[in-house]
Amino acid sequence: MDKTTKTAVTFLILLALFVVIGIVFSMLQQPDIEPIKIIRLKKTGSSSIARNEYVTNLADNTIVKVKLRFEGDKAAEKELTQLWPVVRYHCLAVLRGMGREDFNRPEGIQRFKQLVLKRINNELVNGEIHGLYITELVLY
């Protein structure tokens, strides 16, 4: 092999090595997970529970970012902290079945809340979630 070919092969090997290192590094990075925030509501004795945002595609391929706050009794607070992966699954499943037009109408937002509450309350054994608040909603 001549010198030009050796240089090209060396360059390609180094380039491939850097790409592999970059992929491995990005896979090892853990996303920042916002801790569960629990606020006790004095008048009602309920708890308000917040979790990090949810980002997904809607049924019409619109991207949505939503932050939710759940309000429920103390038993629900304890169960929700243990069931966050299930809660996330249900929230994303409901979001993926809706479209941009659903979130442009109050009835659509109410339907989203009812579906999420129904699905999550079906998972709870002792507690009950009685309120769901959208604290941030962005459609892309």
Molecular structure report:
This protein is of the alpha+beta class and about 140 residues long. It has 2 domains: about 1-30; about 35-140, Band 7 domain (Tetrahydropterin Synthase, Chain A, 2-Layer Sandwich), CATH 3.30.479.30. It has helices at about 5-30, 75-80, 85-95, 100-105, 105-125, and strands at about 35-40, 45-50, 55, 65-70, 130-140. Strands 1, 2, 3, 4 and 5 form a 5-stranded antiparallel beta sheet that branches. It is elongated and about 80 Å long. Mean pLDDT is about 85; it is low at about 30-35.
Secondary-structure blueprint of this entry?
Blueprint: H1 3-28, E1 37-40, E2 47-50, E3 54-57, E4 63-72, H2 74-82, H3 84-96, H4 100-103, H5 106-123, E5 129-139
Antiparallel strand pairs: 1-2, 2-4, 3-4, 4-5
Helix pairs in contact: 3-5
List keywords for this structure.
2 domains; 5-stranded antiparallel beta sheet; Tetrahydropterin Synthase, Chain A
The CATH class of the largest domain is Alpha Beta
Structural class by SSE content: alpha+beta
Task: Give the proportion of residues in helices.
Answer: 40-55%
Q: Which spans of ≥5 residues are poorly predicted at pLDDT below 50?
A: 30-34
- The tally of strands reads 5
**CATH topology (level 3) name of the largest domain:** Tetrahydropterin Synthase, Chain A
- CATH architectural label of the largest domain: 2-Layer Sandwich
Which outline best applies?
elongated
Per CATH, the superfamily of the largest domain is Band 7 domain
Total count of domains: 2
What is the radius of gyration?
A: 23 Å
Order of helices and strands: HEEEEHHHHE
What summary fits the major beta sheet? 5 strands, antiparallel
CA(first)-CA(last) distance: 53 Å
| Range of strand content | 15-25%
What is the residue-averaged pLDDT? 84
The helix count comes to 5
